[in-house]
Amino acid sequence: MSSILKHLAVGLVLRLGFLLYGLYQDSASVVKYTDIDYSVYSDAAKYVVDGKSPYLRETYRYTPILAWILTPNSVLLASYGKIVFLLFDLLTSYLIYLIVRHETRPSDIWSVSCSYLWIYNPLPIVICTRGSSESIILCIVLAVLYFFHVEAYVLTGLFYGFSVHFKPYTLPHILPLYLSLGPAQSSWKSIFYLTSSRLKLILGSAVGFALPTAICYYFYGQEFLQETYFYHATRKDIKHNFSLYFYLLYLNSENNSLFLKLVSFLPQIVLLSTVAILFPSKKHASFCIFVQTYCFVIFNKVCTSQYFLWYLSILPVLIPKLKIKWTHAAILLVVWYFAQFAWLLPAYYLEFEGRNTFMYVWLESIAFFCANIGILVQIIKSYHKSTL
Amino acid sequence: MSGKYGSTWLGFCFLLIASCQFGVQCVRFLDTSEILQRNCSYVRGLHANLIRFITKEGFHRDLEDTVEVTVTNSPIPMSHFTSGECFFAILGKFRPDVFVDPYEIEQNPVLYDSIRVLNNWTDLENPMWLAVSNTTVFVQLTAVPTGNLIATVEVKMPIHFRYQRPVSHSRLKNRLSSNRLVSGPINPGGYVAVNIPLPKLLLRCENWDLMAVEEQCHTVPAVCSRHGDKDEMCSWISVPFKSNSKGNTVFIPVGDTDSRVLVTVLTLLVVLGGKVFLLMTLVREHRRHKIQDSQPEPREHLD
């Protein structure tokens, strides 16, 4: 226990160091360290302080709770939000430790080692200190997994419901959670059996989602629903991004084809439900949620680098269950990074050099998609419910 | 008679038509404000030049403006510019291809000091053909008078280009090769020309006789100053100026509709392949886990 606290303290110092460096870069360089989204949240929080709707800030498409949390940004300290995000990031590391410890107890080696993967991971450190709010949702998802593992189903439901309120991408997580709480003798009919655990989960989820949603609706009405939920459902982002659909959507932007909408939506639905149906067990819950999230990101119509954290944050929890050689894992990591950099090069030339590299960006997004499919398949293959 | 002078009359008529056409062209190039300002004594003696450059490449660029005004026999004394009583501003209107991000301006103290986005709402996300807002920008210039020359401090305004409607690249190539399209808004390499029109150069002096100004000169209503009230409008004189360009043209990459079928089919095939591969792996692993479950587990929980 003391060992993890020491590492969390080091992680805190590390993150504060990055935060201070960011302040320096923002003041000294034309290229800002702070994420553009941070100014969106801060502006929205400022509107809240002024008694106005956070949705007056264009491109603010989050729950108003985020703006409420960040109100001290304009009245106390501009970096307040970043401090909140880095604390959530550390809490995520601690939850990784708790989940792995629960599965591998009494040994502490795995749990501490797995939490290192988050505490000292430069990707989340940079993302949270730049002012991205992702650390909050990652922390909530890991809290869902933790409470699920310790069989606190009401709390699991509450956190799950709140996670859907916060970011709707977590919606499919209910399937593996719900199905794994079924009766011992499983058949297709068991889907409809309401065990006490399932009831607790459903009730918790309903309250966790409905309560914050009702409060937000009370304050901001239809505008809140439109910006936070409906916008994401109908979003059609044709600007280049990691998704392999971007060029297809751009070239077909004027045909409002139902066929294309369905074709881009169906693979996600099929995969997300198949995972949950094939592995309906408590011990597979983390695995299912990981695979679901990974599939959601790579098959999504929009994909940015922040989305990668959604599945990367669950990966450390799975590490003890992956039978994979270090060299093999290292190769997969290199492939993942290489595919990203290979995409970034033509994307840079398109956006900042004005070269017509649409075709190359699209080809690289296909390569990145294939790399991700390959990596996910390797992870699925190397997954064993217990390798300890 | 008619035979003798016929060719002369014909030549005269030809000359008349040609000169009329030239005149029409000349008038077309003259700004309306330029014609109106001929009677405006306030701009007489002010010889303005706008030097505009667009720097950087790609979708995010900087618009760099400097104004140089030579003052010769102007009714406005030079001291009015030195004391800050009279000042210049630029009023720029952009088409939907381009926008200025008001939040970006607000967050940069240097930009915030001189630039003001006048439209209440700016569409920051939509492509050109869906964008519903045109950006209007007011830039207050800081004048540095030396002798009879007033040079303004260079203003570097970040501008952002929107995605353009995809076009067929080959059709344009064919039109170009068959000389049916000498020069057009689209470059065969897959770029669309986006024109940034020249702005209006405005002049205003505190405490001047507004009635006399409005009587003589073509005035433009605009905000009184960068930090003034948005609803409080002032009358500015539109100053005619020369520029190093007649509006800058920027080439922006555009998608090729010729590859629509290829991109659509290949993307969907890759998605289908990826999905099938993942499903097969999941089913295979599910079977393996089932077999594993039916066998005794030696070390599932260490406790």
TrEMBL record, chain A:
Its main location: endoplasmic reticulum. Signal peptide: none annotated. One of its GO terms (molecular function) is alpha-1,4-mannosyltransferase activity. It is found in: Endoplasmic reticulum membrane. It holds the Pfam family Mannosyl_trans. It is an enzyme of class 2 (transferase). The chain crosses the membrane at residues 7-24, 80-100, 136-162, 174-194, 201-220, 258-280, 287-309, 329-350, 357-380. Its EC number is 2.4.1.-. Pathway: Glycolipid biosynthesis; glycosylphosphatidylinositol-anchor biosynthesis. GO terms for cellular component: endoplasmic reticulum membrane; glycosylphosphatidylinositol-mannosyltransferase I complex. InterPro entries: PIG-M. One of its GO terms (biological process) is GPI anchor biosynthetic process. Keywords: Endoplasmic reticulum, Glycosyltransferase, GPI-anchor biosynthesis, Membrane, Transferase, Transmembrane, Transmembrane helix. It is a multi-pass membrane protein. Catalytic subunit of the glycosylphosphatidylinositol-mannosyltransferase I complex which catalyzes the transfer of the first mannose, via an alpha-1,4 bond from a dolichol-phosphate-mannose (Dol-P-Man) to the glucosaminyl acyl phosphatidylinositol (GlcN-(acyl)PI) intermediate to generate alpha-D-Man-(1->4)-alpha-D-GlcN-(1->6)-(1-radyl,2-acyl-sn-glycero-3-phospho)-2-acyl-inositol and participates in the sixth step of the glycosylphosphatidylinositol-anchor biosynthesis. Belongs to the PIGM family. PANTHER family: GPI MANNOSYLTRANSFERASE 1, PIG-M MANNOSYLTRANSFERASE. This is GPI alpha-1,4-mannosyltransferase I, catalytic subunit. It comes from Allacma fusca.
TrEMBL record, chain B:
The chain crosses the membrane at residues 261-283. Its main location: endoplasmic reticulum. Residues 1-26 form the signal peptide. One of its GO terms (cellular component) is endoplasmic reticulum membrane. The keyword Transferase does not apply. It comes from the Eukaryota. GO terms for biological process: GPI anchor biosynthetic process. It is a single-pass membrane protein. Keywords: Endoplasmic reticulum, Glycoprotein, GPI-anchor biosynthesis, Membrane, Signal, Transmembrane, Transmembrane helix. This is Phosphatidylinositol-glycan biosynthesis class X protein. It comes from Allacma fusca. The lineage of its organism: Eukaryota, Metazoa, Ecdysozoa, Arthropoda, Hexapoda.
